[in-house]
Amino acid sequence: MGMFRNQPSRLFFLPSLLLIGALLGTLFVPGALPPAGMESSQFFYFLPLVGLLTLVAALRTLVATPRLATGFRLGDSLVVALGLYAALRGASGGALPRIGVWSSLLLIVWYLDLRISLSSGSRRHRKRIFRGIILLLLLAGLAQEIIGLRQLYGYGLSNHARFRVTGTFHNPAPLGGFLALVSGIALDRIVRLGRPLARYLERRGWQAKLLLSPGFWTFGLSGLFLLGALLLLPATQSRIAWLGALTALLIVGWEPLVRPLWRWIRGRKWVVWVLVPLAGLVLVGGTLAAYRMKARSADGRLLMWKTTLRMIADRPWDGVGPGRFAGVYGDCQAAWLSSPHATDGERQVAGSAGAAFNDYLQLAAELGLPGLLLMVAVLFFAFRGFRRRWRSGGCGFAAALAALSVFAAASYPLQLLSFRVLWMLLVAVGIGGLYDTRSVAGVRAGDRIGSGVVLGFCLVVSALSFWTAWPLRRTYAAWGRLEPLYRMERFETVAADYERLAPVLDAEPSFLFEWANVRNKVGDPAGSIAILERAVGLSSDPMLYNLLGNNYRTLGDYPSAEQAYLRAWAVVPGRLYPLYLLTDLYRESGQEDRMRAMGRRVLEFDERVSSPAVREMRARVRKWLE
After folding, report:
1. pTM value?
2. CA distance linking residue 200 with residue 403, whole number of Å
3. 201, CA 20 to 30 Å: which among 140, 240, 271, 624?
4. Which of 427, 450, 468 is the endpoint of a domain?
């Protein structure tokens, strides 16, 4: 064992860095498993790699560096507390899928593994792994740019029919947010490495040994990435991603550009009188232009934020619980839009929200203000760590985390596992103080005991996840095999299989809708109603209430069917289908006057998007009214 102790850094450096790179590959995992999206597929990719990284960290700690102590800080405790709080609330509420609970626990393990990896070995070793992470982020950004540019110029297909550019994501917004994040790293590398590289070339000229310099390649990759970002970021049309990239630019450029410019301006007061009004006009004009570019989207997000704030006001301390946001949101939005205080504009832009499009508000709505305060405290300790090592890399990572934090204020990155992986990485680098941890000789015995407890926690959670969560992959794969038959309306064939999968997937709203629809089609409306009563607590999709109304209608309970259709229309008043179902209900139940009144509403309704289905519904209503 002595030879292991003599070379701890060389033995475990490459496996650790390769596993960190593989875990960043969560960004590229396609959504092969249901439900729609990539969360389940990414989870089953993420799970075994976290276990392998934990194993490598354990071997390094126990074999190569038995005296290791990582010096865990208060910020680390806050990260663990936030993750455990989310996992415990999710498990106790019963509204979060099992893989959602395990995701929270494994993200804690990922964070602690990173802290061990970033704090182990000699200072030289820690610098190498730190630089390796920068290189991995740049390579991931370049890979996304290549995929996005191929999509933009017609050489590849995007993942969304309405958008030309998505990268490996389902729509352009996450791609824009990721590019903004990596822009902070790339800008910092250009600033930090550009001047030394220029001085070297000036003194010695071009030499072949430059090709062996990591700094040369990092500088070149940073330049290539920024060129690609300039081409691709505008194509994403994500205004908040542009703002995140601008934030990163201001942070990195403050010292070399903004501060000298400010000093120059202070000595020339006439410049202030010219620049301040001009900057104000540019700011106001840019804001108006960004708003008008997608005004309906902006108005819809304002409605989401107002509704989410009402949810927070109703339950400020404990929140609604993880997994219940969408269902409670639907109730709050329906109540507001049914009130006389709502505007016609709000009714027109209302939609079925699965996220608040503001991760801070959604966190407060789900976990209460204590959860939000924990997150803010974690960010504070991370940025403080970056500030202490500003010139040795902290500036770039601070810019990346700031860009992601700005992006999260008007989008949903932290609802995606791939972005939570990135967030934990940036926070671990910040709280860990980069590669400037205490030397082993000065570590107290209590620190070594604490490190052992942390490592034990990581090993236990990793082992339990393999035992408990990994077998769930077969269940999701079985659901995926049922979906083609479901779309072919082979309901009798798949009914028994849906019943078999239900105990595991009973917190997946899309599965519950499919299962309830199957029960409806095989002639069991009462069973379908029981399923839908659970589903409406997890989702704001009005189709759940439309199906609920259809079930009540089959049972002859017309008043309950009417209430279900009205509820479907109340949550999203911009959709015609619930009004059409109400017209048909009144026709079937013999309520002639109400049928005619509702039919006229259908014919006069201003549908946002016309389609063959809308024209067919209106044609049927005209026949009923004749």
Report:
1. 0.93
2. 32
3. 140
4. 468
